[in-house]
Specification:
With 98 residues, the chain is mainly beta. It has one domain. 9% of the residues lie in helices and 33% in strands. It contains one helix and six strands. The termini are far apart.
């Protein structure tokens, strides 16, 4: 059984977006401290590949499924100041464009 890869003190960031990227085409990734990843030592700060899917506190990127620990406090403060509600049970929302 494969162990979980955990991301602590995480935040959401834009991924290779430019000022000319249309809002519906923007991609996002996670940034935080990783634990249990086969390529990185525990506690290393990483930026993930783009977010592909999420359910509850599990987020899938191109190559890895991350279990989210606590979010970064400065990220949560920024969200609060900008009127963005972060649901601790399901913190990452993916827009499905049809």
């Amino acid at each position: 059984m494969m162990s979980n890869v955990i991301l602590k003190n995480w935040s959401v960031r834009g991924y290779n977006n430019t000022p000319y990227t249309a809002p519906e085409c923007q991609r996002f990734c996670l940034y935080g401290e990783v634990y249990g990843h086969p390529r990185f030592p525990d506690g290393k700060e990483i930026e993930t590949s783009p977010i592909q899917a999420s359910i509850k506190n599990l987020v899938e990127t191109n190559n890895t499924v991350y279990e989210l620990g606590e979010a970064d406090t400065s990220y949560l403060l920024w969200c609060e100041e900008n009127g963005i509600k972060v649901d601790s049970e399901n913190p990452i929302k993916i827009r499905d464009i049809k």
